[in-house]
Write a structure and sequence with these properties.
single chain; alpha+beta; L-fuculose-1-phosphate Aldolase; 2 domains
């Protein structure tokens, strides 16, 4: 989708699986290129943005992801154009061919005694408050203020989201189910079951859908797009009792090699592989390239005790 800064052209998909990359060119690089061009990515309804900054004989291709990732592929006359575009393709292709698992199947069978939550949901609420106190929840981008009513309906219809929020957390309820924060909500205010916290019970690969047990009296929101990742980890590692995902970093950690989009099976598999290889999968810290951290623990309080004083706000980009 070739577009421009002053009048971003939206690409309206006909199917959820269509991956859209918007490309624009500029001769000037703003002091904060991410803040200048991230709204263009949203206006263009894109999964990825590539901003070509032309500086005389040199070109920088700035990649921007919906997860606030930002990295650069550069070209100068000493390098062949074929090598430059091959490098761009190699960064783009794995993202464009990844498989989203963001559909939700709502089953109105949540036991009545769980309609107001339980001790585990209260831990989720507490953990979200801690993320807020630690300033680990970037302000959501208000897409409702950036998109036209028509484009917002389009995004809602395809992806079921009403906002862009960052970070998520979950906690195991039993051997097969776990509570998880909803998508597009303020993670520091996770109070209501069904609206802010949902019970994930299964995964249906044929429909790329997560199964949620909900109260028949609540209109539920969608669960976080990373539910497939958490599902894989909980099912493989019975000792994992909680998972926290934040847009931050820690020193001396292993990281995924490709910055797959959130909510894709490929990202879930990559994270699961690294957790499996950790000395103790139930207490692992995994870096998500150009994105953030996934942290496992025996419980949410145990995770926060382990990471206290070790979090770096800046995620390295490469």
């Amino acid at each position: 989708n070739f577009t421009d800064y002053d009048a971003p052209k939206p690409f309206r998909r006909k199917a959820q699986g269509t991956f859209v990359t918007s490309i624009l060119e500029t001769n000037e690089q703003p002091a904060d290129i991410f803040r200048a061009f991230y709204p263009v990515l949203i206006h263009a309804l894109s999964n990825l943005g590539i901003i070509m900054v032309v500086r005389g004989d040199e070109v920088d291709a700035h990649f921007m992801t919906m997860e606030q990732g930002h990295y650069v592929v550069s070209w100068d006359p000493s390098r062949s154009e074929a090598d430059f575009f091959a490098a761009i393709y190699n960064r783009l292709a794995p993202l464009a061919t990844s498989q989203l698992v963001i559909n939700n199947d709502y089953i109105p069978d949540l036991p009545e005694e769980l309609w107001d939550g339980d001790e585990i949901t209260r831990q989720v609420t507490w953990a979200g408050e801690q993320l807020g106190k630690l300033n680990l929840l970037p302000a959501p981008w208000p897409i409702q203020d950036l998109l036209s009513e028509r484009d917002l309906r389009h995004v809602m219809r395809l992806f079921g989201i009403g906002g862009l929020s960052y970070g998520n957390l979950s906690a195991r309820r039993d051997a097969l189910t776990f509570w998880m924060s909803a998508s597009g909500v303020d993670k520091s205010k996770l109070y209501e079951v069904g609206r802010d916290i949902l019970l994930v019970t299964d995964y249906v690969p044929e429909r790329n859908a997560m199964v949620l047990s909900v109260s028949p009296k609540v209109k539920p929101r969608r669960v976080s797009v990373d539910a497939i990742e958490h599902f894989m980890v909980y099912r493989e590692h019975p000792d994992v009792g909680a998972i926290v995902h934040i847009h931050a970093w820690m020193e001396d950690i292993f990281s995924t090699e490709i910055n797959y989009p959130c909510g894709t099976r490929e990202l879930a598999v990559a994270v699961s592989d690294l957790i499996r290889a950790a000395p103790d999968p139930s207490r692992a810290v995994v870096g998500l390239k150009n994105h953030g951290l996934t942290i496992t623990g025996r419980s949410l309080p145990e995770i926060f005790e382990r990471i206290d004083g070790k979090i770096l706000a800046q995620v390295p980009m490469s």
